[in-house]
Design a protein that fits this description.
Aminopeptidase, 466 residues, alpha+beta
Length: 466
């Protein structure tokens, strides 16, 4: 007689798997709720906050390299490891209180301000010298970039907006120190609240949560998952960030090199395909004679490479279900990361359930439209970036829709006068194409109907090893 215990129809098996999956997800959510209750966190139905005229959200200033990868890694990790261990480690993550953040509505889109601090706290030895950390000193932190992650649980999509650090904004505090108008990165030294407040006041982007990660936090998170896979079309180097990629192709990037590629804004690539970087400093003409070409896009190129690293991190984290590896990631998360106190374990588990099969094709990246200009700051002519309207408002409206607020303190134009923000109609929910504008200092403004930025051929891209 044939044993038919394992030969039932595929439909029955799928139903059984679906039931088990649902039961597991319900247990995850129940666990999160239990942890919240134990920690004294009471979850209430949320409502949209209204903003009174003339008063913007108050928030602190901090800085940003790249933290989408950290929160994405944490979310994805919660789907496959030891949940008891997860709740213990979640409690050890440093929490920050950010003033002026707006409440969210359950199931509706929300925005995470991602701050990558260049703080060297915790970095010692050779790594400390490579990143410029002086022995016995704790350098102040600055902003390399600012990112806002727009998460839409209903559509299952994530969009990431990068704001260049040299973009001019209207300051809402510290005018006696920095003037009425200055670069956005001057806001971070006072903490994350002022930075978030400035973003909302200038661009009308509501901030719901804030996360900050340091150099050490970025290295720890990448190493915890065994590094990330990036495909470099050419041997690559950055004499300032310490990037050293000796050969082309898809390869595993770990340790200090993960930080070096994310920080790189003096990027060189060798068109001859060989590693012959001079041992000591060399002129541009000498480097060119050796086959080394320079990416002159500075912060814009760094944004491209940060986005590539973020995608590679998510791809890597999605494929890890080994509890030991996931526990290692969670054990590293508390070192170098600050998490918004309003982000509970219950909410992260809910996101994990929703996004654990996230398709990287649903990750859209944008850069705030801008153009370069020279303005007087402190009596000295300085090269800065100016918001490019109406392209900026078109992109923001497409990305954030009806969430977008009216700016209370619009950014300045090249004459240091407040920009008149145009009125843009919120696009239909059926719209499938968007407009993203990205301006580089060496080229005119370019526009594409693809929301994901066009990445230069010489930049690294996520890959899957053979």
């Amino acid at each position: 007689m044939v044993d038919r215990r394992h030969s039932g129809p595929n439909g029955s098996r799928r139903q059984e798997n679906a039931k088990r999956k649902l039961a597991n997800e319900q247990r995850l959510v129940a666990l999160g709720e239990a942890v919240d209750r134990k920690n004294g966190i009471e979850r209430r139905p949320r409502r949209v906050a209204t903003r009174t005229s003339g008063s913007g959200p108050r928030i602190t200033k901090r800085r940003a390299i790249m933290i989408a990868i950290i929160i994405a890694g944490l979310i994805l990790s919660l789907t496959g490891g030891s949940y008891i261990y997860a709740q213990l480690k979640f409690g050890s993550i440093q929490k920050i209180n950010v003033e002026g953040e707006l409440p969210t509505i359950s199931g509706e889109p929300f925005n995470i301000l991602e701050i990558g601090s260049d703080s060297r706290v915790g970095i010692t030895g050779k790594l400390g010298s490579q990143t410029g950390a002086a022995p016995g000193q704790t350098p102040g932190q600055r902003s390399d970039s600012v990112k806002i992650m727009h998460v839409d649980p209903g559509k299952g999509t994530i969009s990431v907006l990068s704001i260049p650090r040299d973009l001019m904004v209207t300051l809402v505090q510290n005018q006696s120190l920095y003037g009425t108008y200055n670069r956005i990165n001057v806001n971070f030294s006072s903490g994350p609240s002022l930075l978030a407040q400035t973003i909302t006041a200038n661009f009308g982007i509501p901030i719901n949560y804030t996360i900050s990660v340091s150099f050490q936090g970025l290295i720890n998170a990448a190493d915890a998952i065994g590094g990330v896979y990036l495909n470099f079309p050419y041997p690559s180097a950055d004499p300032y960030s310490g990037l050293r990629i000796h050969q082309a192709g898809c390869q595993l990037v770990t340790g200090f090199q993960t930080l070096a590629v994310s920080r790189s804004r003096h990027f060189y690539y060798n068109v001859r395909g060989i590693w012959n970087w001079p041992r000591y400093g060399a002129s541009d003409s000498t480097l060119r004679s050796l086959g080394w070409y320079y990416d002159g896009t500075s912060d814009f190129g760094r944004i491209d490479r940060q986005n590539a690293f973020m995608e590679a991190f998510i791809m890597r984290a999605k494929g890890l279900y080994n509890p030991l590896t996931i526990n290692k990631l969670l054990s590293k998360i508390p070192e170098g990361i600050q998490l918004d106190s309003k982000l509970s374990l219950n909410e992260l588990i809910g996101l994990a359930v929703k996004f654990h099969r996230f398709n990287i094709a649903n990750l859209n990246t944008y850069t705030m439209p801008n153009y370069s200009a020279i303005v007087q700051l402190g009596g000295i002519p300085q090269d800065v970036l100016i918001l490019n309207e109406p392209s900026a408002q078109q992109m923001l409206t497409t990305m954030f829709g009806s969430q977008l607020l009216s700016p209370t303190n619009p950014p300045p134009n090249a004459k240091l006068q407040p920009i008149v923000i145009p009125t843009i109609t919120v696009p239909s929910s059926t719209t499938t194409t968007t407009t993203a504008t990205k301006t580089k200092k060496h080229s005119p403004t370019t526009t594409t109907t693809n929301p994901t930025q066009v990445v230069p051929s010489y930049d690294p891209k996520p890959c899957v090893p053979k």
